[in-house]
């Protein structure tokens, strides 16, 4: 089947015109990028694994009533998603001190927070994704107060569910980055979870050793990055039975 018109390309994914009205095809790349250090590279097979992991987690969230943009997986690297109007704010829910939180407040990594902390960041690579407040979000017209209330409720619900799910497979959810969008159905609008849920935007530590099992292995040069992604998929019970060639990207991707 001929590849459709490209709509958008980000650090880890490409969006193409969908196969059905109101949909997009989300293609998962092997590219990896760390904004803080501008480190770029490739994690072999990451796109295949993230496609499967995100599919599984989106389906599980859908089962508990969390609305998402996910429709179905199409193949090893692509899934069909509903086209949404992305709200330009990344929500970070933190359960354990790590990363930027540890740096900003000079706190030791691994400190368990008394309750989950929710932070907002403006989605802008050019500006370094600065932290913003609810006042910024409403003043700049990115979302209405009722939208923020719904996003907060959904974010905490997603975090609680994923925390329990990962604990069940021996992983600690340190923090998670979430994106939401507006899904329009005629004149009705609802807020839905968008983007992906994977080791690219979840900080996951082994429950017993605290060994990172996520993109931090790439950003911190810890090695065995591919193996960490594979281990997360294995524990979830979804590691694809694949030939090595299945983890490679396509020979060509049309850019227009």
Key terms for this structure?
14 strands; Phosphorylase Kinase, domain 1; 256 residues; D-amino Acid Aminotransferase, Chain A, domain 1; five-stranded antiparallel β-sheet; 6 helices; 32% strand; 2 domains; disordered C terminus; alpha+beta; seven-stranded antiparallel β-sheet
What can you tell me about this protein's structure?
The radius of gyration is 18 Å and the shape is globular. It has helices at 46-63, 99-105, 134-139, 145-167, 216-219, 225-236; strands spanning 6-9, 13-17, 23-28, 31-34, 39-42, 70-73, 78-82, 85-86, 89-96, 112-122, 131-132, 171-185, 188-194, 202-206. A hairpin with an 8-residue loop joins strand 10 (112-122) and strand 11. It is α+β, with helices and mostly antiparallel strands and 256 residues long. It has 2 domains: 6-84 and 224-242, 2-Layer Sandwich (Phosphorylase Kinase, domain 1); 85-206, 2-Layer Sandwich (D-amino Acid Aminotransferase, Chain A, domain 1), CATH 3.30.470.20.
- CATH top level class name of the largest domain: Alpha Beta
Biggest beta sheet summary: 7 strands, antiparallel
Overall geometry comes to globular
Radius of gyration, taken over Cα atoms and rounded to an integer in Å? 18 Å
Total domain count: 2
Strand content: 25-35%
Order of helices and strands: EEEEEHEEEEHEEHHEEEHH
Helix-strand makeup class: alpha+beta
- Give the CATH architecture of the largest domain: 2-Layer Sandwich
Mean of residue pLDDT values: 91
Fourth CATH level, the homologous superfamily of the largest domain: ATP-grasp fold, B domain
Spatial separation of the terminal alpha carbons: 16 Å
Question: Helix tally?
Answer: 6
What is the fold named in CATH at topology level of the largest domain?
D-amino Acid Aminotransferase, Chain A, domain 1
Outline the low-pLDDT stretches: 249-256
Helix content: 25-40%
